[in-house]
Design goal:
Layout lengths: L1 E4 L2 H13 L6 E5 L6 H11 L14 E4 L6 E5 L7 H5 L2 H5 L4 E5 L12 E8 L8 E8 L1
Parallel strand pairs: 2-5, 2-6, 4-5
Antiparallel strand pairs: 1-7, 3-4, 6-7
Helix pairs in contact: 1-2
Length: 142
Amino acid sequence: MTIETNREEETFELGVQMARGAKPGRVFALIGDLGVGKTIFTKGFAAGLGIDGPVCSPTFTIVQIYEEGRLPFYHFDVYRIGGVEEMDEIGFDDYVYGDGVTLIEWADLIKEILPGQYTEVRIEKDWERGADYRRITVEEKK
């Protein structure tokens, strides 16, 4: 499925809608360059889970845990990891195979340790269509 958004609010709302259907154990792998809207999507996703507090990318902490929503929400940003072995050190499998929902920004950097089934959310810009245009492709991976 491919969705086109033309405003930040539309990208946020897509995140809200996807979170409303999320079930325990689901993993969402966000892929896209710097500045394409991964964090905006993630903020919408958190809102869709009922998380009211501020949500920001855990770039330096790697994982941020939110427990006040409908499901525990494990938000990873793996942009700065040195290698997949770092993911073992923070207990990656405990989150991914736990009772919450996991969203991973920059998931293509750890593709080899993603679970056998996950939802890939690829966000791309097309500058010819405007600074706020996004093409968001959602695909189930098995």
